[in-house]
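Human: Not sure, check this?
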Amino acid sequence: MGKAELLILLGAIVIWGIFTLSVNKARFNNEVSIMQSQFEISAVGIANSYLEEAKSKAFDEILLGSSTPSTLPDEFTAPGNLGIDTGEIYPNFDDIDDFHNYTISDTSAEGFVYTVSITVGYVATSDFDNFSTIRTFYKRMNVTISSPDLSNNLNLSRIYPYIG
């Protein structure tokens, strides 16, 4: 084998090595994307489970009594008092705002561990994006999911209307 053939062989080996590394890098990036998607899908499922659970609760503590209050929304829980009532623990919340400032560590069926942080507040029909400082007929729940496995926190919200 001459020098020319040897150089061609070495060139072919280098080209093959570069090609192999490129294919492996593309496969690795694809696997990372797939795993990130699985983390996000799992996180959405967990967030949605809390949003759905809240939907089954009373709009406000005052509505749990046998009679309907006469001056709504003035008799709803004050915005500064939203949160867990004395003696209540999750999962035995009885109204939507019991979830306010609630944080829990939750594990998905796949074994991914997430931190779930929930806030609840009143919102006005003129501004569903920001919490209101007054009582209204609408409450919004924000669920934030964080995890070292997620590239960004995941935020889901739902608005719950009072239906009298």
About this structure: Residues 3-161 form one domain.
